[in-house]
Amino acid sequence: MKRSIAGLVALVLSVPVLAADEVSAGDTAWMLTATALVLFMTIPGLALFYAGMVRSKNVLSVLMQCFAITCLVTVIWILWGYSIAFGGEGALWGGLSKAFLAGVGVDSVSGTIPETVFVTFQMTFAIITPALIVGAFVDRMKFSALLVFVALWVTLVYAPIAHWVWGDGGWLAARGILDFAGGTVVHINAGIAALVTALVLGKRKGFPGTAMPPHNLTLSVIGASMLWVGWFGFNAGSELAADGTAGMAMLVTQVATACAALGWMIAEWITHKKASVLGIITGAVAGLVAITPASGSVGPMGALAIGLAAGVVCFFASTTLKRAMGYDDSLDVFGVHCIGGIVGAMLTGVFCAEALGGSGFGVDSGTMGGQLMAQATGVLATLVYTSVATFILLKFVDLIVGLRVSEEDESIGLDVALHNETGYNL
Prior knowledge:
Elements: H1 2-14, H2 25-51, H3 59-86, E1 109-110, E2 113-114, H4 115-133, H5 143-166, H6 171-174, H7 183-201, H8 217-236, H9 244-272, H10 277-291, H11 300-325, H12 333-351, H13 368-400, H14 407-412, H15 414-419
Antiparallel strand pairs: 1-2
Helix pairs in contact: 2-3, 2-4, 2-8, 3-4, 3-5, 4-7, 5-7, 5-13, 7-12, 7-13, 8-9, 8-10, 9-10, 9-11, 10-11, 10-12, 11-12, 12-13
């Protein structure tokens, strides 16, 4: 018995325990992979998903927009975006202490991973968020206006909201909001900005009288499939470690996505008597969106409910609601991302309850009612701030460079009119 106890003590003492701010090789390896997966979501995933749904005369312009946003936001993030989001402990922003990545080097650590990896991982989130907005205004925004708008939007909208939710001292984090991977920061944020942009720009020439079907749904299926795979990095990577929470985040992401795709398909089948390829892939994206805020807080049964709700609700938001309101959000960014993000954010406050298989309520929330109030506060704050800020930025950009292409350019197509290229045979 004494030998057994002595052996146990020796075994425990021999197990390496990571000190604070010591890099874990396992966590770092996973986060390097997750970072690559999230970048893969934008280029080529989102780019192909959107490109397949536009008319053939605009396919290259959409690919160009996603690619250029990736390049532009990368530079903004290292110059000042990362600092605004994660540089300090203010309630509203992180300050400029880490502008130009001051103090971020080979030896700097964030938790159990190098800070350089954390910077790059968060950069990929900053890249995909404005890229999502592109789907609302395809066919009609000037490329120069896009670049100016994205630069301002990432600086003044995305980075501050990221700090509110994820940054040290952020006021929404202090309220106890649960947003594991960006339901509020990414999807509600981009979705409401998309609606405002569509309204400010106005409808496409000929909408809604002229049919504008997708030119190549094969590309969209490939893009949606890439988004689904990449989203494991998005959600499971947000744990910033290779552990049980990351594993559960991966599982619930798969469950919610499948259930949302089926939910959309069934709703469409009942409504229109046929199930479409465009419908099932859009439903899958709706499920990915809705599980994003919940992925670190809910169990498989919660994910099933969230996915089904997102598929059905986003279907009606992108069809019935859109027709009733009469706006021209070309690729349904608002109906999928904003509405799906709201569904996910609010249902996180329900299914995070331990009694329902979740991991428990957030900081100081205490009860389901308290958690739902924290979630609603985050949703409302994002909707109001982003709507107002996006409207002001669009009007400013319109003043300095103009927002919309000419009617002639719109008729020709942006591939030729703005880039002097074509992605199809004339």
